[in-house]
Each structure stands twice: as C-alpha cells, then as structure tokens.
Specification:
With 309 residues, the protein is mostly beta strands. 4% of the residues lie in helices and 63% in strands.
Length: 309
C-alpha cells in the first residue's frame, strides 16, 4: 500500500515545476510524529497499540562558486538524524545520515544546462563505523528553459544502499505567475514546493519530501540494516524576514515513512523507486509502520538570484 501511495503522490505532481531563481544556502528542518504498526491479516502477533514517537532533524548547507560564465562549482553538506523505536521490544535507536554534495552546473547552450553531483555518505547508528556504513550516490539532471515562465528538467539519481542499488528517474517543471504571487518549484519524486504570497512577507503553501535510503545498524554487530521509505507531504504558513532572506515555516502534514529491519546478508539487487526489479525474498524483522499526521518547522536562509541579474 505504501508503494501505491508513493507512486500516486509522484504522478499527482507531474504538472508541478522545478528549477530555481534562488539558492537556499542553509536549511534547518525539524519534524515530529507518532507512528504505530499496521496489522496485516496474517500477522496476529503484531500489537496495533504499539506507538513510537519519531523525531527527525535535517540540516542542509550549500555553497555554489561561479568559476566561469558556463561553469559553477557546487559543494554542500547534508545531515539527517532520526530517533525512534524500530519495534515494540527494541530500545530507542538513533540513525544518522551525513552526505557530501560535490559537483558542477554547466551551461551547455542557451537553452540547456546540466547539473552533475557525486554524493558520498555515511548512514548508520554511528556506534562503530565500518564498511557497511559507507555508501555513494550520484545525480545527473538536464535543464531546458522553455521560456521566462517555464523550465523543465529530466534526470536520474542512483545510490548504492545496504539492500542493493537504488534508481530514481527525475522529472520537473518550474513556473512563476506573472504577478509573482504563485510559485511552484519541484523535482519529482524527490521534493516539491508550491506557495502563494498573501503579502510581501506572508505566504501559504505545500511541500513534498521523499527519500529511499538505508542505515547500517552497527549496534547489532552489522547483522542488520534499516530501509527507510519516506514520504512527507505538508501544508505550511511561511513568514519572510530580513527582506525575505530568512524564511520561517510552520507545517502540518501526513507522514507515511516506513522503517523496515532486514538482515545484512539479504539484498534485493536493483530497486527503481520503491519497486525491486527481482523478487524481494527478504525476511522483515519488524512490522510495517502506519501513516500519521506530523508537525514540522523550517528555517531557511535564501539568496535571491534575481536581485543580482
């Protein structure tokens, strides 16, 4: 059911756009929810009354450096920490992902540009660092500027994970209304942001964040890993400060994130989005998590590129 929700969410936003006339230099996000277990018909031993609080913190730092008229060096850091009980009998676990973002943006022609990034990361409970904690990803996206109001993007994201190799096709479309009040910016199925300005400093909107990744559990002597399949969709109210360079958002939304535990020796090979290309014969070590409402807060430091054109 979670996989069906994931696809419906992606295709629901195929008309929503991507590309940017700003750079979010720093973004700090806090999300909190409580997740319980889904009890399937053949899982009589699953306690539907089980519930765990899930505390998620995400930090992103980006620094673009223009090397020439056609070439921009892209560097950055992403760190994410999640704390939860992975099962009814498990102690509280803290899983963390730290990732470097290194690459370039190149202007191929008047209409076409490309963004190419290498994404090495460590993802685990950080009790002891070993080879199973290291993973590497890469992303390549081509950007076509249709006109001043619309841009489209196509690309592919790939990453080595504890369960195998993850592949994510990317499609996007960016749009801003003529009166500059309505703005949509998305790269699907990874993220989306749509908002409408009520005043110069106050806006309402919605955002979508998804991720598919894994964490090595070194506290269990590297015998297990967590596979996270996350979809968070929220409505928000945003307040712009310091001439809209600092943006504060309060959010409420739906969190359908699932955290599955699997043996380190069990793989699925290549997985496209949430769907493995071969049969998934792994034995899951915990029950599937149910979806729930969540509340969140964003603090963003934004650099407006249009002010420097």
């Amino acid at each position: 059911m979670k996989k069906i929700i994931f696809l419906l969410t992606c295709f629901a936003y195929l008309q929503i756009g991507y590309s940017q006339d700003y750079v979010d230099i720093v973004k700090f996000t806090v999300n909190n929810t409580s997740l319980g277990n889904i009890q399937e018909a053949n899982q009589k031993n699953v306690n539907k009354n089980f519930e765990t609080s899930v505390n998620n913190v995400n930090f992103e730092l980006y620094y673009p450096n223009k090397l020439s008229e056609k070439l921009v060096l892209l560097t950055g850091l992403t760190a994410e920490n999640t704390r939860l009980n992975l099962s009814e009998k498990a102690d509280r676990t803290s899983i963390t992902m730290t990732r470097l973002n290194i690459g370039v943006k190149y202007q191929h022609s008047e209409k076409w540009s490309g963004t190419y990034l290498l994404l090495p990361k460590i993802a685990s409970d950080f009790n002891s660092i070993g080879s199973n904690d290291f993973q590497i990803g890469a992303i390549a996206v081509l950007d076509y500027q249709y006109n001043d109001a619309y841009k489209v993007k196509f690309g592919l994201y790939s990453s080595t994970e504890n369960y195998g190799t993850s592949l994510t096709p990317i499609i996007g479309l960016w749009h801003r209304s003529k009166n500059n009040k309505f703005y949509i910016n998305a790269t699907l199925p990874i993220r989306m942001d749509a908002n409408y300005s009520l005043t110069k400093n106050l806006s309402i909107g919605s955002d979508l964040m998804t991720s598919i990744k894994s964490y090595n559990l070194s506290e269990f002597k590297s015998n297990f890993y967590v596979q996270e399949e996350s979809i968070r969709f929220a409505l928000y109210t945003a307040l712009g400060l310091m001439d809209n360079s600092l943006i504060l958002r309060g959010k409420v939304g739906l969190d359908t994130t699932d955290y599955g535990i699997y043996n380190a020796n069990e793989k699925v090979g290549v997985q496209v989005l949430t769907f493995p290309l071969s049969d998934d014969k792994r034995n899951r070590g915990n029950a599937e998590f149910d979806s729930s409402l969540y509340v969140g807060f964003d603090a963003i430091y934004r650099f407006d590129l249009t002010k420097n054109k």
